[in-house]
Design goal:
The protein is α+β, with helices and mostly antiparallel strands. It folds into 3 domains: 9-90 and 296-304, Rossmann fold (3-Layer(aba) Sandwich), CATH 3.40.50.20; 99-116 and 182-272, ATP-grasp fold, B domain (D-amino Acid Aminotransferase, Chain A, domain 1, 2-Layer Sandwich), CATH 3.30.470.20; 120-179, Dna Ligase, domain 1. The protein has 10 helices and 12 strands. The protein has helices at residues 21-37, 51-58, 76-84, 93-100, 102-111, 124-129, 210-214, 231-245, 281-288, 293-304; strands at 9-14, 41-46, 62-65, 120-123, 137-141, 151-153, 174-179, 184-191, 194-203, 219-222, 251-259, 264-271. The strands form 3 sheets. A 5-stranded antiparallel β-sheet has the order 10-9-8-11-12. β1, α1 (21-37) and β2 form a beta-alpha-beta unit. It is globular, with a radius of gyration of 19 Å. The two termini are 30 Å apart. The relative contact order is 0.16. Cell wall formation. Residues 106-302 form the ATP-grasp domain. This is D-alanine--D-alanine ligase.
Length: 314
């Protein structure tokens, strides 16, 4: 078979152990299909605790990490891959762990001059007893992605959120509480340190939650975003600065909010392993600048070569 990655054995990690498992399976399948179309020999791995043994037996040339959320995106799997000496996609151990911890990432971003929302870290039982700030505010797990476990507490709410102390809560004891920033939901993909463009996300549900992100027709995307003069450029520079401040490599996606009434732009978080599903933002932005899905996936694999775990050129 001929193609851009002909002769390469690529292990695609998908599934995993986090609440984002289902999304990861879709991302992994799409990327594995693209790699096969590009000539690679692909091993599809539903990653579990035996990952090191599986990879040792397979001996791939490179690993495409399509895992999302805790364990796969927070530095743990990256540490396994470092130990095995395998080149792998996306960010290294430190950047992955830092970006996944919202409180620590915000501190680093603020120190680098990137505007972030206020708020802080609280125990989930504490915020269930009383409002820790005046509504409206947002409650989110400190170490999850894909809007898993995110709660909005609106102005006039009868009381603090109780979902965080329900028996079904599975997102950790610490939660981030931030003031709600009204306005537009924006996203910027960064590829090799350079921002691609800005997407304005219009969720049909009123909030860009898990269903709006991954459900068919859950949101509309305007690419590039139609914003006041200078805001697109400002959002792109903020995303690049965040990518660099956290020490990321490869492709990341920064999520931002723009209060178009008060002209306030803040960066919410950086996703070090953004989704690559049919409704995902990064492939859509890449396509806007002429990079097809297969070419994007190939570039991510090629970028994994020649770098050490923290993204420095070897």
């Amino acid at each position: 078979m001929s193609g851009r990655l002909a002769g390469q054995h690529v292990a695609v990690l998908m599934g995993g152990l986090s609440p984002e498992r289902d999304v990861s399976l879709v991302t992994g399948a799409a990327c594995a299909d693209a790699l096969e179309r590009s000539g690679a020999r692909v091993s599809r791995i539903d990653a579990g605790r035996d990952l090191a043994q599986v990879l040792t037996a397979l001996k791939p040339d490179v690993v495409f990490n399509a895992l999302h959320g805790a364990w796969g995106e927070d530095g743990c799997v990256q540490g396994v891959l470092e130990t095995l000496g395998l080149p792998y996609s996306h960010s290294g151990v430190l950047a992955s762990a830092l970006a996944m911890d919202k409180a620590k990432a915000k501190a680093v971003l603020a120190a680098a001059g990137v505007a972030v929302p206020g708020g802080g870290l609280f125990n989930r039982h504490e915020i269930a007893r009383e409002h820790v700030m005046a509504p409206p505010y947002v409650v989110k797990p400190n170490a999850q992605g894909s809007s898993v476990g995110v709660l909005l507490v609106f102005e006039g709410a009868n009381g603090p959120p109780q979902d965080v102390v329900a028996p079904s809560w599975a997102y950790g004891e610490e939660v981030m509480v931030e003031p709600y920033v009204p306005g537009k939901e924006l996203s910027v993909a960064v590829m090799d340190g350079k921002a691609i463009t800005v997407t304005d996300i219009l969720p049909r549900t009123g909030f860009y939650d898990y269903d709006a992100k991954y459900g068919e027709g859950g949101s509309m995307h305007v690419v590039p975003a139609k914003l006041p003069p200078g805001i697109n450029e400002k959002a792109m520079r903020m995303a690049e600065a965040a990518h660099a401040a956290l020490g990321c490599r490869g492709v990341t996606r920064s999520d931002l909010r723009y209060d178009d009434v008060n002209d306030v732009l803040v960066l919410l978080e950086v996703n070090t392993q953004p989704g690559m599903t049919p409704t995902s933002l990064v492939p859509e932005q890449a396509a806007h600048v002429g990079i097809g899905f297969d070419a994007l996936v190939c570039w991510i694999v090629e970028d994994a070569y020649g770098r050490d775990g923290e993204g420095r050129r070897a």
